[in-house]
Structures are given as C-alpha cells and as structure tokens.
C-alpha cells in the first residue's frame, strides 16, 4: 500500500467528535423532540407514609405543547449550568482540595509504597479495590462520592503501568457493581421496595447472586483491558490524549521517604474520609457537606504538610483549573434534561414506554420493564429519582401483568445501575471522568461493551426472577 493510499484511508477513517460536540448534538435532538413528542404531565403527590414525592399513576394528561425554540435551547445551557451547580462546584472544590493534599507529597509517598509492596501481585490489585468500592455501592449507594477516590485510584493504576481509564474504572465501575447488586442500597432498592410496599431489602439472596455475576464480568473486563495496554500502551483508548504526569512504571518506581509530616497528612485525609462516610450513612450528607469535608481536608493537610498560605491558594487554583473542562461538561449535559422539562415531554416519554409494556408477551414483559427502565434512566439519572418516578407506575402494572413486585423493583435497580456507566446525563459519571481527565467519547468507546454484557446478564436474571415469581410478592 502506498503512502497516498494510507493518507486516503486516514482521511476516510471516522473521527469521534469532541465530548462537547456529542452532548450538543443530543441537546439539539431533545429540542427537536419538543416539537414532535406530545407534551404531557403526571401529577406529583406526597406519599403520606414516607414523605417522598411520587407520581400519581392515574393522573397523566396531555397538555398544550411548549416546544423549545433555538433561543430557548441556547438559554437552557446556562440554566443547566445553574441546575448542576452543586456538582460542578463539587468537582472544582475536590480538584483544588486534592491538589492541596498532593502538593505535600504524602499521596505520592503512600501510593509508591503500596505499588512497590504489591509489584509482584498486581493481578490482585484490581479485583481487591473494585470489591472494596462495590461494598460502598451496595451499602451507602455511593456514586458521586466516588469522585473523591478517583485521583488516588488513577495514581495507583498509572503506577502499575495502566492508564487513567483503569483508574476511573476501579472506582466508578467498582461502585456500580455494588449499586447494581443493591442489597442494602437505600437509593434504588430502598426507595423502590418502599413504594412497592415490599419488606425493606427483601430478595437479598437473589440480589447477591446477581452482584457476584456482575462483579466477575466487570473484573474480567477491566483486567483484560489493563493487561492489553500494559503490554502495548498504544492500544489504550486514551492514546494521544494528554492526561497529566504519571507516577511511572512499577519496575521503575523508587521508594519515597514517608516522613512524619506525610503521615500526619494521611491521618487527616483518613479521618476526613471516615467522617464523610459516617455523615452519608447516618445523616444523609450529600454534595454540599462532602464538598465542605474535602475543602477542610485540603486546608488542614497543607499546613500539616508544612506548606504556607500562598502554597494553599496556588495549589487550589491549579487543581481546579486542571478539571475545568470536565466540570463544564456536567452542566452542559444537564441542559438535555432542562430542554425536555421545558418542552414537557419527559413524562410523555415515560407514559408511552409504560404503555408499551402492556403490549409485550407475558414471557418477556419483565425483561421489557428492565430495558425501558434503562432508557428512562437517560432522562432521570438519579437512582432515587427514577425509583420515585417509575415505581408508582411499575407497581400496579406488575400487578396487572402477573409479575411480582419484587421483580419490578429489581428492574428499576438494574435499569439505573448499568446505563449510568455510559449515559451523558449522569452527573456522577461525568464527575469521575472530569477528575480522571478522561474524555466522555473515549470512555464510551471503552465501556459500552461492559454495559452490554451487564445488560445481557441482567436480562437473564430478570427473566429468572419472573419465572420463579421472586417474592415475597
């Protein structure tokens, strides 16, 4: 093949658009749909038993269309930024705070020690860390919280000769495994079962079996990719993307002295994480409180580490600057939901999807519920938000179709957890990608097959649950 042929082939090769471009195309599509999809709304009422806002399943009505014009679409972008402000500023604060901690050298010192300790046992690192993060997923329903751990998991991954994708996957996919299992997850399992009036956290044995299956699939997927790029870094989906300085290959790392100041910083960091997890579990802390915890960790750490006030300011600004693009992606993606809400088409889409289920054969209705929940998750990427919106519809529908309510609750859990790993409307996903400096399009290229494998496994499990009438009812 001549050089000219190679050049022609290179020109014809499809180039994936920039992340901003992909999301903007979706915004345009959502805007067009406001002219094509009939507008409709459900009434929201407060559940007297739980105090949650839920959908009145019998209240859907079509209303006059409120299509979003081009000027309205453009105005929706700053509205999306404002609507996602808590996550955007969480990302900025976390980036700045972690840079303050990292500037003390404590994180580098402990990560290098960890890598050198396990340099001949690196095949244990990915399964072990993913298991630990999965525990956070099925207990406290960790999602946005994983953003805080990504800088550390990336440093570990880079130290073993892997790329940022592996670092992000260890934390994000690890938590998603537990989120999908959902044995004690208060945000999907808890809310869905509460609305369906099921005993809280019932069906745990079946969910645990699913969790083990999802864990095996995910660990195999991540380890296969990690082994491939360690053998040939050019096969990384991030090849050509600037992601920052790496710690280095595991066989080239030199021990960094772990000083008393480093130990002090690590103690501050550990105490902060313990306070964060306790606050999330006991007091329902969310973005604001977690942001405050990490800001405090950064400020205290930099002084314990022997740095001054100017060092604190410079480090914070550097850390926040490095993740600006990723933080803005979160706000841009939120625009998609703003457009659909202003066009009043979100409820119409949900109503139509629920109606489609009634037309499916009995044998595959449960699987249809799962697939439809996966699609709805694009529009409602919050686990508790989706459960609160969908379960009031799915519960009576399951009763009518002869499907157990436990199976219906399972479809919500799986529908939320899997697709959250690739949808651009998930603030948690875009947050970890922002901190990990992984462009969304590259993550999608890497991760879509894992979501497909999970979806196949989930469909089989849902079909089994429907066949055995997973209960108690």
Automatic annotation (TrEMBL):
Q: Please state the protein's primary subcellular location.
A: membrane
Q: Which residues cross the membrane?
A: 20-42, 87-112, 124-140, 146-161, 204-223, 264-280, 286-303, 323-340, 360-380, 450-470
Where in the cell is the protein located? Cell membrane
This entry carries the following GO cellular component terms, namely: plasma membrane
Superkingdom, natural source: Bacteria
Q: How does it sit in the membrane?
A: Multi-pass membrane protein
Q: What are the record keywords, sorted?
A: Cell membrane, Membrane, Transmembrane, Transmembrane helix
Family annotation (PANTHER family): BASIC AMINO ACID ANTIPORTER YFCC-RELATED
Identification of the protein by name: Putative membrane protein
The root-end lineage is: Bacteria, Bacillati, Bacillota, Tissierellia, Tissierellales
